[in-house]
Each structure stands twice: as structure tokens, then as C-alpha cells.
């Protein structure tokens, strides 16, 4: 979108991109990875109805160039096998690696600077999915997190909406499963602790909700962060997360289809959150070749950066939240002190990540300004070179004009000298002109008179 300035007009314009662009599609999952990358995964091919896609593409927001994420087995998409929620691709050593089936109407969110989490959707057979997958954008490796993530898992669904609150809690709202017409409940995935901490109704609860019992804010809260269902929830909702001036997180949802299209705008406010769960975004899930079930292993020496912090700073959402603090009954003073220390360290960690993200954003802006200045300087250099060339040509013309002036002055001096010479020798010339030239034959008239008869003796 282009804006003409303060009080100016905004208008959409087509962006020219480089590289091989993805195929036309609808109902794809899109999210920002890191600060300057946009990932597009899956969707439905409009040329072939009910044919979902399984490819992933990344748009570099700096160079506006597309690249396709190639899987570890060398393939770029998986559109054929749709019998289960997991496909098996051949790895480099001949082993089978899990890959999600092609899908559409799913959601995705960033997890670290080069990973994306995908949940739900619908496959080619029209079956709704409830699996959770992790894609490493840098390597193209897929990891099935469905059995690795603890907590009360949400039921299968498609057409749901997702948004990250406080750079930590991935809230999933709405959607449908093709069978139940009621509310499927909400789900919250703690991206730091990597567990479902506030899932709503599952398939059995959706049957209850269809009979008139809808979840509300008065229901008994579950451990961790609990998100009640909005009054109107359905498929195709749009949702985003913002933050108030007081630091409260707010989810804003609009629209949806629950038998008929809705035009409601709904908001849910979270109080300012504080927490002490460990940051496990640097966990690298390993796949057991025997049963395909992954086991998480945490590196000892480094922590991964949170992509949402940089993305939130880049979107201008302001100061982020502190992690949630969970307290139980009967906690000893030593445990409380340890939790307070963990809270302080976690808050410092978040602060440092915010500062790091701000520095990265400032560095990116400085680089952009530097590039702009270098471009302007190059243009000024070219203008100076053009002006110097013109100045050299004008100097040559001026020198030629000066030579002509010198020649004219020399000719004028010669004319002045001749005139002066003529003026000094002018009287002799006049006398020479008035005196007739002597006749070598004498005076012919006198001779004629002398020959007359009168004068003849």
C-alpha cells in the first residue's frame, strides 16, 4: 500500500517480485518469520477444486524475491498422499522422514527466527486435521509435534484463526470440523513452555455446545492461560493481537460463518501477563527412526531468539508483556524465592530480547538510510561528472573564441598601421596624381601648329 503523506491518499499497488512466485491459491497459511521474511504454506489450487497444496515459499521483504523451501528429501511439495495426517518422505540416508499432508484452511505462526508451527486444516478428502507440525525454513525439515506437546489438545478443525499474544501465547479461535455445528472452543499454545495451556472444547464438548451450552468467561479456568470462546465463533474468522497503553493484550476478531455470515467485531482483553515458564524455543526435536515419535533435546549453551519480539517491534506494537507467573498453594519460601529469581531473569531476558530486536530494527533502518544516501551520492557524482564535462566543453569554446578575438585584434592593428602610413604619406601622393605624365613624343598640338602652311617659310 502506498501513502502520499500526511492527509494524503492511500492506495493499493502491485508489487513486483523476483524469483519463482508460488502458484495461485486460496486459504493458505501466511506468517512473518524473523523480521524480513514472509512464509506462505499450503492452500487450495483454484484450478483443481478440493486439491490442497503442501509447498512452502518464502518472500524476502528486503529484496522482494521468492524462494521455495525444499524438503530434506529434495522435494518441494507433497500433494499426492492424503490418506493420513503424515506422509513419509525419503531422507538422505534412505530413512523415512515425516511430512504433513497437503492442506488448506490452516494457521501458522513463527517460532524462533527460522521455524514455523502449523496447526489444523483440511486435506484433499475433506477431513479436518488436528495435527501440529514444525517446519525449519532454513533446512526444510518437518517435525511432528502432535505427540510431543503436552496438555489438552484441541480437536481437529479448519477455517480457524490464530494470533500470538504477548509474544508467547498462540491463541486459536473458531473453525469447524465438518460434523459439529457448535463451537469447537478456543486453544492456547504456550510457545515458551511448548504445551497446550488453555484449550477449549474438543469434539465431545462441541456436541454439548451445539445443544446450547456455550463456553464463557464464567467457566472454571484451566491451569495456565485460559481463553473462553467468543459469543460468535465460526469458520473463516479474522483475528489479530494488539496491546493497550496499559500493557494489556487484546484479541480482536471479526466475521466468521456459523450457519450464516457474521459481521461482528469482538474483543477479549488479557490482563498484563507475568510468567516463569522456561524458554524452549531452541529445542531441536529429534525423530526416532523406529516409531517416528520425536524426543526433544535442549542445547546447553545457547538460547534461540524469539521471532515474535522482532516482528512485534517491526509492526510497532510497542512494549511487550512479561511472562506469566503461575503460583500454587503451599509453596515454600525457597520455591517462591527461586520463582521470583526466575521471574526476574525471565523479565531481563525478555527486555534484552526486546532491546536486541530494537537494535536489529534500527540497524536495518540505518542500512536502508545508508543505501538511500549511497544512491543519492552516486546520482550527485554522475551529475557532477556531467557538469564537469559541460564545463570542459564551454572552456574549449571560450578558448576558441579568445583565439578568434586575438586574430581580429591583430587584423585591426594591421589596418590601423596602414591607415596611419597612408595618412603620413598622403601629400606626395596627391602631387604625383595632379602632375601629368610627360609625353615622350612631345607636345603634339604645338608640333601640329608648327607644320601649318602659315608657319612654313
UniProtKB/TrEMBL annotation:
<feature type="region of interest" description="Disordered">
    <location>
        <begin position="421"/>
        <end position="457"/>
    </location>
</feature>
<feature type="region of interest" description="Disordered">
    <location>
        <begin position="200"/>
        <end position="234"/>
    </location>
</feature>
<dbReference type="Pfam" id="PF24681">
    <property type="entry name" value="Kelch_KLHDC2_KLHL20_DRC7"/>
</dbReference>
<protein>
    <submittedName>
        <fullName>Uncharacterized protein</fullName>
    </submittedName>
</protein>
<feature type="region of interest" description="Disordered">
    <location>
        <begin position="75"/>
        <end position="99"/>
    </location>
</feature>
<dbReference type="InterPro" id="IPR015915">
    <property type="entry name" value="Kelch-typ_b-propeller"/>
</dbReference>
<feature type="compositionally biased region" description="Polar residues">
    <location>
        <begin position="208"/>
        <end position="221"/>
    </location>
</feature>
<keyword id="KW-0880">Kelch repeat</keyword>
<keyword id="KW-0677">Repeat</keyword>
